[in-house]
Design goal:
CATH topology of the largest domain: UDP-n-acetylglucosamine1-carboxyvinyl-transferase, Chain
Function: Cell wall formation. Adds enolpyruvyl to UDP-N-acetylglucosamine.
Shape: globular
Keywords: Cell cycle, Cell division, Cell shape, Cell wall biogenesis/degradation, Cytoplasm, Peptidoglycan synthesis, Pyruvate, Transferase
CATH superfamily of the largest domain: Enolpyruvate transferase domain
Helix content: 25-40%
Strand content: 25-35%
Main location: cytoplasm
Bound molecules: ligand EPZ
Pathway: Cell wall biogenesis; peptidoglycan biosynthesis
InterPro entries: Enolpyruvate_Tfrase_dom (IPR001986), Enolpyruvate_Tfrase_sf (IPR036968), MurA_subfamily (IPR050068), RNA3'P_cycl/enolpyr_Trfase_a/b (IPR013792), UDP_GlcNAc_COvinyl_MurA (IPR005750)
Number of domains: 2
Structural class: alpha/beta
Number of strands: 24
Length: about 425
């Protein structure tokens, strides 16, 4: 079993370059099937979610050509069938974006029910509401979601909840629907805007992405394009918090500072210094960590995907911080792992009361999801002694080359492969 082994105590110093946004690329790669053409995608992050999506595309008959470390050409001219099987889709929730893009391509799609991180119920009722409003018939049987339409017609859709996934999936299905589609109460995250820009570069007609209302005029054909993915807001935020949590001084390069404003605001309130440049941001800390209250909200609020990382830093703040999860039902499971390291956290539903302690101690812990894993890495860097992190596959789904990047910043961290149980005895 692979683990991260972290020796705590080092302050992170130096420069780190941020990769392409995971939550943008996992929508943009499925979106390529909307054209029977070639797309060149640049600034692709080196993460396992991307590899899985390439396998799904190849399973459908697309061809992938690696042009360099961060650029691929995807040819979707010939797809054999509009199906993403359980075997292909089970490792990642975002495979359900093929529902919207295959519907948009050929008016039908069959995709396995989504998997993904485990922090509460993750319904898809809003996705289905959108597809049905456009004229698709959606059924679920045998673990597969099947969507089929004689004709997709533009519609006025009001989402009951702000949902990144539903906004993306319905946008994908609507770009070729006949007439005007209006989406209201939509998500406004940077990756929503990035997908809309990508689709428009393919010939779509989408306006208002990043605001509360998106208007889509259906077009008949989408063509191939060349497009560069935006930098990852959450990867950047994670290194910002890691720098502030370890009293470091780090220049984080290839970022869009505007996407980081809510994170910057909270780090400054915690006593860190943040300096913004055109496409980089510097975070350093000399003063003690001050308590800060956090409430996660859809963009432009504080990102839920930064909640665990911020809480990790606040475990050693002066005073007590209140962290409220405003997006997910149950995104506090990771706090049990922080408590194994000496953190003092009381959780009541969506609220965590984090009483600052003078130190954390290294311990064996488990990543319960992608961002929880990042939080445990930060806590391990802050702790005295050694922290062993299991289930690191979650972390590697969304953070490219994270060990190399942290070691380059002075962290003492390595990935080991531990043979356990009967295997160990047999060897
Ligand atoms: C996306 O998940 C992200 N994943 C998540 O990031 C992120 O936490 C989330 O958006 C919120 O920003 C990807 O982009 C691949 P939602 P998604 O639909 O789309 C409810 C990470 O760490 N809801 O915006 O699944 C839902 O229960 C991952 O990178 C419905 O009720 O999230 C939740 O309470 C983890 N019905 C809220 O909306 C629906 O049909 C927001 O969910 C859909 C969602």
């Amino acid at each position: 079993m692979e683990k991260f082994v972290v020796q705590g105590g080092a302050s992170l110093r130096g420069e780190v370059t941020i990769g392409g946004a995971k939550n943008a690329v996992v929508a943009i790669i499925p979106a390529t099937v909307l054209a029977k053409d070639r797309c060149v995608i640049e600034n692709i992050p080196n993460i396992s979610d991307v590899t899985n999506l390439f396998h799904i595309l190849e399973g459908m008959g697309a061809t992938i050509r690696i042009l360099n470390k961060t650029t691929v050409e995807i040819d979707t001219t010939h797809l054999v069938e509009p199906t993403v099987t359980y075997e292909m889709a089970r490792q990642m929730r975002a495979s359900y974006y093929f529902l919207g893009s295959l519907l948009g391509r050929c008016n039908e799609a069959s995709v396995s029910m989504p998997g993904g991180c485990d922090f509460g119920v993750r319904p898809i009722d809003q996705h289905i509401k959108g597809f049905e409003a456009l004229g698709a018939n959606v059924t679920i049987d045998g673990g597969m979601i099947n969507a089929k339409a004689d004709l997709l017609l533009g519609s006025h859709i009001y989402f009951d909840v702000v949902s990144v996934g539903a906004t993306i999936n319905v946008m994908l299905a609507a770009v070729k629907a006949k007439g005007l589609t209006i989406l209201e109460n939509v998500a406004k995250e940077p990756h929503i805007v990035d997908l809309a820009n990508f689709l428009n570069s393919m010939g779509a007609d989408i306006r208002g992405a990043g605001t509360d209302v998106i208007k889509i005029h259906g077009v008949d054909i989408l063509h191939g394009t060349t497009y560069s993915i935006i930098p990852d807001q959450i990867e950047a935020g994670t290194y910002m918090v890691a720098a502030a949590a370890t009293y470091g001084d780090v220049l984080i390069k290839n970022v869009i500072p505007k996407h980081l404003e809510s994170i910057t605001d909270k780090l400054v309130k915690s006593g860190a210094e943040v300096i913004e440049y055109d496409d980089s941001i510097r975070v350093r800390r000399e003063a003690p960590i001050e308590k800060v209250n956090i409430k996660t909200m859809p963009h432009p609020g504080f990102p839920t995907d930064m909640q665990p990382q911020m809480t990790a830093m606040l475990t050693m703040a002066q005073g007590t911080s209140i962290v409220t999860e405003g997006v997910w039902d149950n995104r506090m499971r990771y706090t049990d792992e922080l408590k194994r390291m000496g953190a003092k956290i009381q959780v009541d539903g969506k609220v965590a009361v984090v009483e600052g302690v003078p130190s954390l101690s290294g311990a064996p812990v488990k990543a319960t999801d992608l961002r929880a894993g990042a939080a445990l890495l930060i806590a391990g860097l802050m702790a005295q002694g050694t922290t062993y992190i299991e289930d690191i596959h979650y972390i590697e789904r969304g953070y490219e080359n994270i060990v190399d990047k942290l070691v380059a910043l002075g962290a003492d961290i390595e990935k080991i492969d531990v043979v356990e149980g009967a295997m160990a005895k047999a060897l």
